[in-house]
UniProtKB/TrEMBL annotation:
Organism of provenance: Nonomuraea thailandensis
Entries under InterPro entries matching the protein: FAD-bd_oxidored_4_C, FAD-bd_PCMH, FAD-bd_PCMH-like_sf, FAD-bd_PCMH_sub2, FAD-linked_Oxase-like_C, FAD-linked_OxidoTrans_Type4, Oxid_FAD_bind_N, Vanillyl_alc_oxidase_C-sub2
Lineage top rank: taxon: Bacteria
An example molecular function term from Gene Ontology annotations: (S)-2-hydroxy-acid oxidase activity
Protein name: Glycolate oxidase
UniProt key word Flavoprotein: yes
PROSITE patterns with a match to the protein in the record: FAD_PCMH
Bilayer-spanning residue ranges: none
Keyword check for Flavoprotein: yes
Protein family (similarity comment): Belongs to the FAD-binding oxidoreductase/transferase type 4 family.
Cofactor: FAD
Amino acid sequence: MRPIDALVDALSEARVLTDPDVIDSYARDRTFLEPGKPLGVVLATSRDDVVTTMKWATEHRVPVVPRGGGTGLAGASVAGDGSVILSLARMTAIRELSPADEIAVVEPGVITADLDKAAREHGLMYAPDPSSYEISTIGGNLATNAGGLRCVKYGVTRDSALGLEVVLADGRVLNTGRRTMKGVTGYDLTGLFVGSEGTLGVITAATVRLRRAPATPPATFAADFSSLRDAGAAVSAIMAAGCQPSLMELLDRATLQAIDEWRNIGLEPGTQAMLIGQSDAADSQAAVERMERICTENGASFVAVSSSPQEADELIGLRRLAYGAKERQGACLVEDVCVPRSALAEMIGRIEAAAVRHGVRIATVAHAGDGNLHPVFIFEHGTVEPPPEVWAAADEVFKDALELGGTLTGEHGVGLLKRRWLELESGPVAGELQRGIKAVFDPLGLLNPGKAI
């Protein structure tokens, strides 16, 4: 009997898919990377399904690739040859939502926006806000330590993760963390699993922190600049002035042109960058007006301030169109280098220079308030992988980010795409220690092999 048949017997044919065409639809993420040929797909609906799968995988020495919504941009959930894909997308229960403790206990398949919507019914919110929040899952966000638009004020996913329920490689169940806002007992295993890209264990539930939703609707502004450097200077001035924006996003002209071609936003010829900021403070309108003045002082040619929640949503919606607009223009290599905020303008200039030097299209957006840039390298649809000039430009961008004191990834993760540059940032000692940690949790190397480290 084939090993996969034993798994079918343990879970049923409805839970284990073996049709090659169906498997292929689960084997990819949003990168251009081509998957291998997996043995099957497990559609887990409970922790017990995950336990059964991992015990089977250990017995038969079969690699397991955990998967959420498949919205990843680094290749972390791309399946390899001979693996089994473990889909957690059907584990969608919000097990508990406690307004008194300001926490929720959720399963990994819960959509990020759905958790936020449920929290707001109690005057709370779930702060992490990746651009894919309407389709990405909490489990995937935890696996990559996703950031998003509101991270400038509220931090990344790790800052909202209090505790986890994790199935280890051999099928044992581990509970980490706590339900309390404070706790320092033992090593921080919760923090270790968040961002581990499914290489240490499979998250089957998470206790996450909720926060009080703003009492009044946030106020928003959008400012046009004739140069990216002026926009970067405005960001630095806003943060230095203590304005505490809840969102601060930068779009370059290439991004704006892609959106304009799709949705006709009336892009002005002289606009080279747009800065979109928001405040959800009690005095949000006054805070945004202060940011408006700072933008004008730093060379903004036009600033629009929202006068209603609908206008605010429209301005933020512009930012959320960015990636879809670029996908319409070609295949995309999406990166997310992060630099110290003071180096933001310099890094933008270096990205522009790399595009010219290598003759490639790069469209950049940034979570500007925390120095996290997303240069998107656009190449021809149907190309198996980026052409050499794109890789050369990407190599230059990564090295520039590290030279400026930054990092290879601020929120998308390493996956498969960034492993070739990992040694440049981590160094041999860190690499050795990380491989040692992997061996403790997954001695047979079955969990998402070849990813993250």
